[in-house]
Design a protein that fits this description.
Elements: H1 21-28, E1 32-36, E2 39-42, H2 44-63, E3 67-68, E4 74-76, H3 77-83, H4 85-88, E5 94-97, E6 103-106, H5 111-121, E7 130-139, E8 154-164, H6 167-187, E9 192-196, E10 206-213, E11 219-224, H7 237-242, E12 245-247, E13 263-278, E14 288-290, E15 296-298, E16 300-307, H8 308-318, E17 320-321, E18 324-325, E19 336-340, H9 346-361, E20 366-369, H10 375-385, E21 389-393, H11 395-400, E22 402-407, E23 413-417, H12 418-425
Parallel strand pairs: 3-7, 19-20, 19-21
Antiparallel strand pairs: 1-2, 4-6, 5-6, 7-8, 8-16, 9-10, 10-13, 11-12, 11-13, 13-16, 14-15, 17-18, 21-22, 22-23
Helix pairs in contact: 1-8, 2-6, 2-8
The protein binds one RNA strand of 77 nucleotides through strand 8, strand 13, strand 16, helix 8 and helix 10.
Length: about 425
RNA sequence: CGGGGUGUAGCGCAGCCUGGUAGCGCGCCUGGUUUGGGUCCAGGAUGUCGGGGGUUCAAAUCCUCUCACCCCGACCA
């Protein structure tokens, strides 16, 4: 993609509403922009990141034996009256009427809808287990939206729902999701700690929150200091769960197994949540199957959420410096930024155009800064949007045949021939 | 919802106290200049001063109502 025809309105100054790094950087890099309180429009650069994250989540969900569906954003109140949550959900639910004055709502979650679908089609234990998920926009009319996409009112969520015949089956589903989550977050260069948690309005009996440690997190957690030393690449669920972590509501110093000197407290950003809640929805919504003993049994359920749009912010919180974002390669909007330091220099531009073509042919996602601007502004913009690699070509390169390759993460710069620069990156 | 704050050009802000022709920096447009870390020079465009009502000869400025947004707290992916 050529910068000259792309659309990423970068800002030199920080918009006054942005208090935390991720919010600031998302606005400054032109990834997204606020439409109204807690509601954002995603611009091309931000959308690419959102799509990369979505795809990683999708792949890991599929590997964990789940099937993707797509449920609507608008739901009928009826289903929620059956589950009893229409009243309980309160003002956080955005309610509306259609032209027939039928009560509708913008879905804050989808237990009712998916359970109803399941109930209508699945009648036998032989069809179990089933794990169905979708990645869809949700709306929760938060008391106080803040921190950009970290706590928006409208947000993109992956929500998975498991249906099993027995408690043991449900536990296996729960475990499969825990494992999928560890892999999912690791692929984004995040160490997310599964913290035993109290379950909120969704209700339930067994529940973990996945928290990313960050000063700007909204919840307080207690954890074993060893969490800081884990290697994302070799992380396993067993290892993660062998360490102590608890939310402040559940943490009890009296029964905490971690000696005081190893116990740390920090703020966490919740990026995922897994619940087991048994038959809480299957009974009221009539999700029964025929068991092997010819008896109707309500199915055992769990639900598993990941805040997809929140993850964009969370990843930036974990990966940035004073100059801008440092994207992990797996979610970067482009893999490499190609900087033409002087577009008016014909020979220089020829070199750049040539390398750009080669990148495209090699299937390397490249943002080619071919705008007519000073070099300083280009460096600043490229650091800000945080692509993992930069290839810098200026008039100097014309004589030498060398370009500079910069690793945004480490800041390391090396001089290479144009040929080698591409090899370095691929 | 309770407490605090802000609305003036696309962005960041000054002006308001003490009423009298609406300003600065960045950005934008034109021309030139410069080209390895946000070049420099010259010229130019852009505002219902968030909105309604009131006071006054006169309101960005004073009074009043209202809307929006932000920050602190309780809730959540």
């Amino acid at each position: 993609m050529r910068s000259s025809v792309y659309f990423y309105p970068t800002l030199k100054e920080t918009p006054q509403e942005a208090q935390i790094a991720s919010h600031r950087l998302m606005l400054r890099s032109g990834m997204m922009t606020q439409v109204t309180s807690g509601i954002y429009a995603w611009l091309p650069l931000g959308l690419r990141v959102l799509q990369k994250i979505t795809q990683i989540i999708r792949e890991e969900q599929n590997k964990a034996g789940s099937l993707e569906v797509m449920m609507p954003t608008i739901q009928p109140a009826e289903l929620w009256e059956k589950s009893g949550r229409y009243h309980d959900y309160g003002k956080e639910m955005l309610r509306m009427q259609d032209r027939h004055e039928r009560e509708m709502l913008y879905g804050p979650t989808a237990e009712e809808v998916i359970t109803d679908i399941f109930a209508r089609f699945v009648k036998s234990y032989r069809d179990l287990p089933k794990r169905l998920y979708n990645i869809q926009w949700k709306f929760r009319d938060e008391i106080r939206p803040r921190f950009g996409v970290m706590r928006g009112r409208e947000f993109l969520m992956k929500d998975n729902y498991s249906f099993d015949l027995t408690f043991e089956g449900a536990k296996a589903s729960y475990q499969a999701m825990l494992e999928a989550y560890v892999k999912t977050f690791a692929r984004m260069d995040l160490t997310a700690i599964p913290v035993r948690a109290a379950s909120g309005a969704i209700g339930g009996e067994l529940s973990h929150e996945f928290q990313i440690l960050a000063e700007t997190g909204e919840s307080e957690i207690f954890y074993d200091v060893d969490y800081k030393n884990l290697d994302v690449n070799t992380l396993t669920l067993d290892r993660l769960q062998s360490l102590y972590a608890a939310s402040d509501e559940l943490h009890d110093p009296k029964i905490c197994p971690v000696p005081e000197e190893r116990l740390k407290t920090a703020r966490g950003i919740e990026v995922g949540h897994v619940f087991y809640f048994g038959t809480k929805y299957s009974i009221p919504l009539g999700a029964y199957v025929m068991g092997p003993d010819n008896k109707q049994v309500p199915v055992e359920m769990g639900s598993y959420g990941i805040g997809v749009s929140r993850l964009v912010g969370a990843i930036i919180e974990a990966h940035h410096d004073e100059n801008g974002i440092k994207w992990p390669i797996s979610v970067a909007p482009f893999k490499v930024g190609l900087l033409n330091l002087n577009v008016k220099d014909k020979a220089c531009t020829e070199l750049c155009d040539g390398l750009y073509e080669k990148c495209l042919q090699a299937g390397v996602e490249v943002l080619y800064d071919d705008r007519d601007m000073g070099p300083g502004a280009k460096f600043a913009d490229m650091d800000l949007i945080g692509l993992p690699w930069q290839i810098i070509i200026g008039p100097r390169s014309v004589g030498s045949g060398q370009c500079e390759v910069k690793n945004r993460r480490t800041g390391e710069k090396i001089e290479l021939s144009l040929e080698d620069s591409l090899k370095q990156i691929v």
